[in-house]
Design brief:
The complex is a heterodimer of chains A (605) and B (180). Chain A has 605 residues and is an all-alpha fold. Chain A is built from 29 helices and no strands. Chain A starts with a helix and ends in an 8-residue tail after the last helix. The chains are: A mainly alpha (605), B mainly alpha (180).
């Protein structure tokens, strides 16, 4: 009996042991110490290179911003940006990548998963040229020939990017940047793009800047756009093991997306063509609509038709309305987007939207099934109605409240913000005729007893808009309105809104600035931008007090912890300042450069 | 069971969001300038403005735009939905749901401020948006607790009434038995 038991146990345990041995034999495990050291090295290299990318990009942006006020300083900053960007592509960094690739060549499973994203990051940082292109765009502002040289080098380097997607995107970027300088050279770079979606995008950008030679380039863009629908669909979801019927389904969905992308790309080409040849643009748009209508899947088709109709609206609203009508029932969101664009474009042409257009859009919006999209659509219509028919807009606001609170029994118990926004917009419009009526309208917007921040935000913003509208004609009335807005904004806790109001008020009454600056609780960026606006206004009036406000703005921007964010804030202040005080602007730019140069360097202290 | 699963979904989404953001923070594919030229970035305008349905945007090739639109859709929908739940609860429970509204209210204002900015990178928006989402999620958890408490109150109340009825019937039966 006992012998038999041993035998049974042996029979049961053996397969388990064999299975365990087989598992161990299948995946080769890397020595944990080797794994840790390789991952650490890859991680450090990737982090360093990413920081260098940010530094190069930041310096490039700074150089571009300086070019209007200080071309020599800009050239110097852009040169140092380029040096950083080129340093990332250095042979040493590429050698480190190769070394890491060699060290991990036999890795599998979880080990490989740990190191692969890091290697991808290093590869992107050492091969991609978008940062160089962005620096060259800054150079082009003052020295087109130099920029062209850098872009030519970048184009050659981009061709060697191993990842096809990044290669196409970077070639597209370089070609588009070249477009404003040498369209023919740019078109030659665009011709190297293998994906017709990127090629069409690049050629459209080049053609729209190319002047007389633009027509031929835009014709090539249209050809590239047409080619998108002929691209063989592929999907990351498909593997060798995928069943044929699943494979067919996934590929047919992706094919439909490619057809839709073709239609959309062609309509973008048409918009660029419209500037020189409206008749041809209409032809291209009709062709795009035909392509969109040929999409197999109903949702993709509806959205493609809607996107084309939205572009059409910029050229011919009647054509756009006809295309919107082709969108099948059940896709009201798609039809609404097209009809609303038609209403907006008609309003742009005549200075005022028509109730006919808005009623049409509203009727379609009522049938949108997604509650979020429906309320957003109705809000759009109602806001567009405000300058045309305030009563109707106010009615729409009431309806909006009901839409979101169908079960609210207590009137005023909840405050659908979309409805409140519309009521506030009606009040702002009323203020053009009667300030008292406008204030009364705002007061009529019910505030919750507690936690009324969002409603107060909308009210304060409306008061601020009313004040801004009155500022030039009646500064005293505007000051009072700003005062009321400031009072309401305190309850909202929004530093951004408080500083918008403060900047408006201080333009009318500079004595308020220090009081405001000390009272408003806001992050340094908001504070710096608000102060810079006031300082710019004071400088424009030749007020000696501007210097102190510029200093306060600089102090706030310098107080930001993040080097890149601080540099961007200082740059924005410097750009404003450069219009009035070039020496101060140069000092601000220098500080911005100092902060951006700290990126990737160990923190002091 | 379904309720528990439903409660887990937003938690899972938050965790997923945090993981995604953590990965993005490392992979520096975040600046708009990586794909767009300076003139294109300058022409962005207020891309956060709603122009068409999220479903119409979803096939865009721009990961940044998709991220922004998805963020706007989920954040705004959550803010409005939770506000609606709170309204429904007002007057139904002995506990006062207004204190939860405070978090939602703060989140709404922070979100409106964020939506007014013009992004230059995904991280520039995704970081503050995640903070807002976390605060909204905190409010949601408290709201759920409040709803559970309300359900418990109802069950306990009903149980109490039933016990009293049973005890009354029992005492009546006992009384009649003793009489006999």
């Amino acid at each position: 009996m006992q012998k038999r038991l041993y035998l049974v146990l042996a029979v049961l345990i053996t397969p388990v042991l064999l299975f365990a041995c087989k598992e161990q034999g299948e995946v080769k495990k890397v020595d944990p110490k080797v794994l840790a050291s390789v991952v650490e090295k890859a991680s450090n290299t990737a982090d360093t290179l990413d920081k260098l990318t940010v530094r190069a990009y930041g310096l490039g942006q700074l150089g571009a911003a300086m070019s209007a006020s200080d071309p020599a300083g800009a050239a110097q900053t852009l040169d140092s940006a380029l040096a950083v960007a080129k340093d990332m592509h250095s042979a040493a960094n590429k050698a480190t990548l190769e070394e890491l690739k060699a060290a991990t060549s036999g890795w599998e499973g979880a080990d490989l998963e740990q190191v692969k994203p890091l290697l991808d990051r290093i590869q992107n940082a050492t091969t991609r040229v978008w940062a160089i292109r962005s620096i060259a765009e800054g150079m082009a502002l003052t020295n087109k020939a130099k920029a062209m040289g850098v872009l030519n080098e970048a184009a050659a380097e981009a061709e060697a990017i191993p990842d096809a997607n990044y290669r196409n995107l970077d070639l597209r970027g370089v070609a588009a940047a070249m477009g404003g300088i040498e369209p023919s050279a740019a078109a030659a770079v665009a011709a190297k793009i293998s994906d017709p979606r990127d090629a069409a995008w690049a050629l459209t950008a080049i053609g729209s800047k190319a002047g007389t030679s633009g027509a031929a380039i835009l014709a090539s863009a249209a050809d590239a756009a047409r080619k998108i629908k002929d691209v063989e669909p592929s999907s990351e979801l498909i593997s060798e093991d995928t069943k044929q019927d699943v494979k067919d389904k996934v590929l047919s969905v992706n094919k439909a997306k490619l057809v839709a992308a073709s239609a959309k790309a062609l309509s973008k080409v048409a918009l660029a063509v419209n500037a020189s040849d409206p008749a041809k643009a209409k032809g291209l748009l009709s062709e795009a609509a035909e392509i969109a209508a040929s999409v197999e899947f109903p949702y993709t088709k509806a959205y493609a038709l809607s996107d084309v109709a939205m572009d059409m609206a910029e050229v011919d609203t009647a054509l756009a309305t006809a295309t919107a009508a082709k969108i099948e029932d059940g896709h009201e969101d798609a039809r609404f987007a097209a009809l609303m664009k038609v209403a907006k474009m008609n309003a742009k042409a005549t200075g005022r939207a028509t109730m006919e257009d808005l009623n049409k859009a509203q009727a379609v919006a009522e049938d949108i099934s997604d509650p979020y999209d429906k309320s957003k659509a109705l809000r759009e219509v109602a806001l567009a109605m405000v300058p045309v028919n305030m009563e109707k807009a106010a009615e729409a606001a009431e309806e909006m409240d009901k839409l979101w609170a169908p079960e609210a029994e207590k009137p005023g118990a909840r405050h659908a913000l979309f409805g409140t926004e519309i009521k506030a917009a009606v009040a702002v419009a009323t203020a053009r005729q009667s300030e008292d009526d406008a204030i009364a309208a705002l007061k009529n917007i019910t505030e919750p007893r507690f936690n009324n921040k969002s409603v107060m935000y909308i009210k304060a913003k409306a008061l601020c808009e009313m004040a801004a509208n009155k500022a030039s004609a009646n500064p005293e009335a505007a000051k009072k309105l700003y005062g009321k807005a400031a009072g309401a904004a305190v309850d909202t806790g929004s530093g951004q809104l408080q500083w918008t109001i403060a900047a408006g008020l201080c333009k009318l009454d500079k004595s308020k600035i220090f009081d405001m600056a000390s009272k408003i609780e806001a992050d340094n960026l908001t504070k710096a931008m608000g102060l810079a606006e006031v300082a710019a206004d004071l400088s424009s009036k030749g007020d000696a007090g501007a210097a102190m406000v510029w200093d306060l703005a600089e102090k706030a921007a310098s107080g930001m912890d993040d080097d890149m964010a601080s540099s961007e804030a200082l740059k924005a202040i410097a750009v404003k300042c450069a219009q009035y005080d070039k020496a101060r602007a140069a000092a601000l730019f220098a500080k911005a450069a100092e902060r951006v140069n700290k990126i990737g360097k160990p923190k002091e202290g | 069971m379904t309720g528990r699963v439903m409660k887990l979904i937003p938690k899972a989404l938050i965790v997923l969001g945090m993981i995604c953001l953590a990965t993005q923070a490392y992979a520096k594919d975040n600046f708009c300038a990586e794909c767009h030229t300076a003139s294109e970035v300058a022409a962005f305008g207020r891309v956060m403005n709603w122009e068409k349905s999220i479903y119409q945007v979803k096939d865009t090739r721009c990961p940044g735009l998709l991220e922004l639109k998805k963020g706007a859709y989920f954040t705004e929908s959550q803010l409005v939905k939770y506000d609606m739940y709170l309204t429904e609860l007002e007057g139904k429970t002995r506990r006062y749901p207004e204190y939860i509204r405070e978090d939602l209210d703060k989140g709404t204002v922070a979100y409106v401020d964020l939506a007014g900015t013009v992004p230059t990178s995904i991280d520039g928006v995704a970081g503050p948006a995640l903070k807002i989402k976390k605060s909204i999620h905190g409010a949601y958890e408290t709201l759920n607790k409040l709803r559970d408490d309300y359900t418990l109150e109802k069950v306990v109340g009903l149980g109490l009434v039933l016990t009293l009825v049973v005890m009354l019937l029992f005492s009546l039966g006992l009384k009649n038995t003793l009489k006999e």
